[in-house]
Amino acid sequence: MNFEYFIARKVARAGQWSFSRLIIRIAVIAVALSVAVMIVSTALITGFKREISSKIFGFWGHIHITDPDINRSLLEIYPISKQQPFYPSLDTLRKVTYIETRDIWGYEWEREKDTKGGIHHIQVYAIKPGIIKSKKEIEGIILKGVGSDFDWQFMQRFIQKGRPIELSDTTASQEILISQQTADRLKVDVGDRFIIHFVERGEQVRRRFTVSGIYKTGLEEYDRKFALVDIRQVQQILGWKPDEVSGFEVFIDDIDDLQILNEYIYFEQLPTDLYAETIRDKFPEIFEWLELQNINEVVILALMVIVAIINMVTALLILILERTNMIGMLKAMGSTNWSIRKIFLYYAGYIILVGLFWGNLIGIGLCLMQDRFELIKLDEANYYLSVAPIDLQFSALLLINAGTLLITLSFLVIPSYLVTRISPVKAIRFK
Predict the structure, then answer these.
(1) In this predicted structure, what is the pLDDT of residue 44?
(2) CB of 42 within 8 A of CB of 400?
(3) Which residues are paired to 199 by β-bridges?
(4) How far apart are CA 43 and CA 29, in angstroms?
(5) From CA 249, how far away is CA 175, in angstroms rounded?
(6) What gap in Å lies between CA 215 and CA 158, rounded to an integer?
């Protein structure tokens, strides 16, 4: 058996009945709380970013295919033909093989790699801004026209009242799906009617719509502006042909493939008169704000690791001073300084592992409770979510535990140097 590990086990068991047990318990509690806070904060931030991103992608898709002149705005209206070689067959794409290039110490290294997924769905859309006039209020709105290929799976989750609009094969539906925010401002409900006014080619155009349903995504900017209607209504208002649309929305299987698939679509699938752009590029300010949350995560992790290190350094120094006589005897029997230091590092490792156990138990437990019972509520107007989301990932848990153990033990090597300052003669004399 490892000599240092054997002595460390004996010391740990003896420590349970010595005065140092209070210090050990404080160190265990400090490590446990630090790990629990790291687990909860990482799960919350990851969940927050995932939920906001999924809402944005779910509402607009991952990639837009449009006329090149409107690639920076959703409100400029230029029609493109729906009759394209990639539509609707693009959603049969399951993976793309590409060359990944990495720069390692000044040398470029290339390898062939496949995307994690492919294209999940492609659908057409058309947009037109207008003004809603009800019996009591006037409100600006942007109509998003959708067709029979629209995937209602995302929107179905957010419909609070009523149902999605019904699209017939013969005539354009006069139904409209509005947000809860719009319904509250206009004081309308499911089944109510109102008129939307448009200006097209210098003339005023009016359309009457019936509210089929009311949705609420929590994305205030989108909920305030957009309503869903039959795409044929938008085409008629704009004077477009039945096969003319504003663009195509592309949904992908895995977000990690976003840039690769966007480039593949643009260079390999599109004709020269069309342009492909990711929603990240279209709305950079939203995703930049989400990326800023990474700074908060790093700050929290760093602070918690520092707390664990400070408490463990204090505990280790006290343990070394308490065991001065034992250190003197081991030195007298021929043990080296490094051998004795390893005893205390093993002991410290044991304390950290106990702290990690309780920290994981508390942290994961709190996350599961929040995920199951939704205890923490949020102001949806400010955070875009009504409940604090949780996203526990095994890789994150592994990194937190391994990182805390390795970083804390590395910092304990320096205070363990105190062992070399203890003289065996003086230590045994004052036993």
Answers:
(1) 94
(2) yes
(3) 204
(4) 21
(5) 22
(6) 5
Query: Alpha-carbon distance 30 to 316, whole Å?
Result: 14
Name the residue with tokens 């989400």.
Answer: 290
Longest dimension (CA), the chain: 105
Quote the CA–CA distance of 200 and 128 in Å, as a whole number. 10
Residue among 229, 242, 172, 154 nearest 196 (CA): 229
Contacts of 161 (CB under 8 A, 6+ apart): 189, 190, 213, 214
Taking each continuous run of H as one helix and of E as one strand, the counts in the chain are: 14, 14
What residues form DSSP beta bridges with 97? 114
The radius of gyration computed from the CA coordinates of the chain, to the nearest angstrom, equals 31
**Distance spanning both ends of the chain, measured CA to CA:** 29
- Per-residue pLDDT tens digits for 263-288: 999 999 999 999 999 998 888 888 88
**DSSP string of 326-353, one letter each residue:** HHHHHHHTT--HHHHHHHHHHHHHHHHH
Over the stretch 64-87, which tens digit does the pLDDT of each residue have?
999 887 655 556 678 999 999 999
What's the gap between Cα 6 and its chain centre?
45
CB 170 within 8 A of CB 227: no
DSSP 393: -
What are the b/e assignments for 69-97, b being 16+ CB within 10 Å? ebbeebeebebbebebebbeebbebeebe
The label of the residue with tokens 């401002």 reads 185
**What is the DSSP annotation of 208-229?**
EEEEEEEE--S-HHHHHHEEEE
CA gap 59, 249 in Å, rounded? 10
pLDDT single digits (tens) 147-203: 999 999 989 999 999 999 999 888 999 999 999 999 998 889 999 999 999 988 778
pTM of the model: 0.84
CA dist 103 and 421 (Å) reads 47
| Type of residue found at 364 | I
Q: Give the separation between CA 146 and CA 43, rounded to whole angstroms.
A: 35
Q: How many residues does the chain have?
A: 431
